[in-house]
Amino acid sequence: MSNEVGKNKTLKMVVAGTVAVVVIGLSGAGVYAMTVKNQVAKWDNKIYQGVKVNNVDLSGKTKEEAVKLLEDSFSNTIKQKKLVVKALDQNFELDYSNLNPQFNVQEIAQKALEEGKNLSLFQKNDIIKNGTNKNLPLEFKYDDSKIKAFEQQIESKINKDPVDAKISISGGNINITDDQTGRKVNAEELDKLIKTNINGKIEQQTVVQAPIEEVKSKYPKSELAKIDGKISTFSTSFATSNEGRSANVTLASKFINAKLLMPGDTFSYNETVGERTTARGFGIGAIFKGDKVEDEVGGGICQVSTTLYRAAMRAGIKPTERHNHSMPASYSPVGLDATVYWGSLDYKFKNTYDFPVYIESYASNKTVYVNFYGSVSGMGGKTYELFADTLDKYEPTISQVQDSSLAEGQTQWEKKPVTGYKVKSYLITYQGGKEVSRENIATDTYQKVNGVMKVGTKKATPPPAAPPAATQTQTTPPAQATQTSATPGTNQ
């Protein structure tokens, strides 16, 4: 009995001790947790240990303190920074203060403050005691338009246009001036370099080298020197033209004179001569409109395009665009003409040679001349001629209409008859005076125009009968009598 009592006492003592230990442990843990909580609460408005922005330590800073520190470290300091662009022997400075530089200081300070605040109580406490390794990036912004203005300033000082060699021909004598190489800043590369080197780093100065390229002239003397002589010529007469048409032929020939075509260049007659207006000096001349001949500003310039066409073909330069007239032109055989009209019909050709071609054009003594100059040796001893064969001929009919306004037996054309044609043109190549090839160029059709003859039907009016002789009274002897006319005032 006594043994059982002893065991019970012992058990009670063990339980009591265990409970005491647990109570004490729980009490201690509560105290510790409360201590940690109070410690962490002190950092609610502070940035945790080890949080940095662009390597600037913000540990223990409030947001306001962090903002001030970041502004002093970056926003204010960056305005003193410069970017220098070296170009040739010149330096161009870009002050950051002109870029309206801005850092996202307020935003990043808030992020720094919030860093770790979403963790558990004990995780927060661990960061407060041991710190973290968080380095937040600071974003840098600036006014891009200021950079473009800076780049344009550099380009205006550095860029230099090349100078083309110039060729002039007078009386067959060829004169060529020197060319000069230009230079140009590679704007795209310069823009990339500047924007790559503009950043939020607070170093005082950044230096970049402007990319500068040579710019060759379009017409170098070495190329123009390949023009050493005349390779073709053609001329047509406008001796019967009136003043307006003659002025148009002369003016159009001036517009195409001294035209230079490098290899691969295309010539456009309309682009070269331009719109035909009175303001530009063009007069009135006859043109074909359908089956009629009408007067219009610029009439006659097709004679120049036709002369140019013939000269070009003699140089072996074929058209990329060419149209024939609707009716035969007096200054050209059918199939060998080239008509143009502003806004619709053009005459074009491309320089397919590996040397430049120079066009000389002028009017003298009612004749328009077109000469092509190029490399005589480059022609390889070949000459060219354009011919046309008639495939069909369309004879017009002539009808008569009576016209009471014309005297009987009198005739007058209301519409003159024009014979129509279908022709095929060929470019024949000669080598040493012998034909070596014949190339089909075009098949052209010229419409016929049926004639209309007006025949007069108006009867002739008989002359009025002579009035009877007036009665005369003889008052003097016959030898001294005078006569009074019955129709006074008749012209003699």
Automatic annotation (TrEMBL):
UniProt-listed Pfam families: G5, PG_binding_4, VanW
Entry keywords, A to Z: Signal
Taxonomy, superkingdom: Bacteria
Stretches for region Disordered: 455-492
Biased composition (Low complexity): 468-492
Residue ranges constituting the G5 domain according to the UniProt record: 380-459
Name of the protein in question: Exported protein
Species per Swiss-Prot/TrEMBL record: Clostridium folliculivorans
